[in-house]
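Recall that a protein's primary structure is simply its ordered list of amino acids. Everything else, from secondary elements to tertiary packing, is in principle encoded there. The following example makes that idea concrete.
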Amino acid sequence: MVRLIYTYSAVLGSLAAAAPLCNNITEAAGGGVPRFGGLSSISAGAVKGFQLALFLENLESSFFQTGLSNITKWGINGYPSDTIQVVTGVAAQEEIHTDTIIDLLETYNAALVPPCNYSFPVNSTKEFFELANIITSVGIGATIGLAERLAVTDPLLIQSVSSILTVESRHDAFFRHLEGKVPNPAPFDTGISDIWAYNLALSFIVPGSCCIEIPLPILPTLSVSDPITANSTKSSLREFEWDPAQMTFVTEASKQLLVGWVNQLNTPVYTPLNITAKGKGTAAAPPGMNGAAFAVVTTQQPDTTDDLALATLAGPVVLTLS
């Protein structure tokens, strides 16, 4: 039976506590779990934020552990000779991040979020690194969003979040470099809301496998692809696809559909969605966007990413624009 997670839980025995990490994990990671203390309590908002962070770190940890095993079998032809060593360090650091958040939640007697079962569409070393860039971009965006919220409610917790964020960014730069992309495509990374982060993670989770659900809205899905162009190999145009039978689209049927784009520290940008078929349309990525960007379908034009999350009809999707 699936349970909704609550902010605080008096019973922790039914959930798996953080087990002591093996020496080889801390050695591969370059360090272990820090000690928390000094604060008599943390806010309910901080607890919810770290529970979502644990939900996301569980996913990342599983991705890199299974990926490490797979690329060891698939081989690293065409990649640097130390690739396995670096990915081993990344996998170990993700385990440290996971256990750090578990330790923080336990310190303040908050409920833990166990791992789900995951499904990653990866069948080669190349596909693993391509998806690693996407998953890490989502983690970076979610962590920026968490830091922004903690700045208001629990500023003394920002150090732990920012320390994780910088390491995640190093991971992403490595994956981009392996793909032949510029490791630093933009001066700022892109933050996203908790709603968007949760929904992006759901695409990798086996339905019904989570014994605890995060109490955030589940949005209709959106897919994006590069349309075929007759006269250009590179276009800013993107093709979007959604389920028009979803109630969000039924209630907004008479309104102009827009794509809302979020990139770096800028306010959301909106472009018309040109309908090409039922549940399909195209829109051009706004000029000047670089690195990871996030897009949704909407009929409104809010000024903030959090408000856009509440006005999302389908999505989000993450795009690597450079």
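Residues 121 and 127 are 8 Å apart (CA to CA). Helices lie at 23-29, 44-74, 83-107, 125-153, 158-178, 194-202, 247-251, 305-310.
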